[in-house]
Amino acid sequence: MTSPVYVALDTTDVAQAAALATGLKGLVAGVKLGLEFFSYCGPRGVEAIADLGMPLFLDLKLHDIPNTVAGAMRGVAKLAPRLTTIHASGGFAMMQAAAEAAREGAAKANRSATKVLAVTVLTSLDQPAMAEVGFGGTVLDQVKRLAELAQKAGVDGLVCSPHEVAHVRDVVGSDMTLVVPGIRPAWAEAGDQKRFMTPKEALKAGADLLVIGRPITGATNPADAARRIAEELR
Ligand SMILES: O=C(O)c1cc(=O)[nH]c(=O)n1[C@@H]1O[C@H](COP(=O)(O)O)[C@@H](O)[C@H]1O
């Protein structure tokens, strides 16, 4: 079975990210670089990791007015990651502008398009935390609402927690890529993740790809942790 795991390299140190990626080559599907990495290492850091030749997920969770997000997405497109993220809560017009900018950027460079994924409700939020910021309904209803809106706006996939992934699949069908963070093997600490499941449970619920960070990168031996997860998924 090919690995469904993108490993989150959450660090501000390019050399550390590169060492982790190199040590995990062949054990994971690809690497994810996010805000922690990008805020300090920037596009040149992304290029350094891309040069290692592993599939790249650039997770910047863009969220701004449509014109600004489209501009940022044109920059992302120049880095040519396989996957990237925007926040679905930025709204229909913002998601549409992002998806168009990603497609145009790829067409200009004559390559296959970066998949734009809309993040629904962060896996670090639970029901009380959602109520605190003014969401009266359930997390599940909010995730489903945003999933439907994102699909209408033309994005390629969604990020949701393993708790909602089966419901999201029912809403959007098989065309969209469902990427699921909030993954914790039974032997790992939850940390700040609130809506999580084991890798096996998340795949069974319908995830296409899993995002896993600290259970692998924080292990004494990250390669062993990745192998253990692969064995659990077999
Ligand atoms: O978009 C994401 O990747 C993401 C969305 C979400 O709702 N929750 C979430 O944890 N993530 C990312 O997934 C990774 C999870 O890392 P760990 O909690 O260390 O496994 C981090 O890089 C988060 O930024």
Q: Give the termini separation.
A: 7 Å
Major sheet: arrangement of strands:
1-2-3-4-5-6-7-8
What bound compounds does this protein have? orotidine-5'-monophosphate
Number of domains: 1
Helix count?
A: 10
Number of strands: 8
Dominant shape: globular
Largest sheet: 8 strands, parallel, barrel
Low-confidence stretches at least 5 residues in length (pLDDT < 50)? none
**Which CATH first-tier class would you pick?**
Alpha Beta
Q: What is the annotated CATH architecture?
A: Alpha-Beta Barrel
Give the helix level as a range of percent.
40-55%
Order of helices and strands: EHEHEHEHEHHEHEHEHH
Percent of residues in beta strands: 15-25%
Kindly report the CATH topology. Answer: TIM Barrel
The helix/strand class is: alpha/beta
What can be said about this structure in brief?
With 234 residues, the protein is α/β, with parallel strands linked by helices. It is built from ten helices and eight strands. Helices cover 47% and strands 15% of the residues.
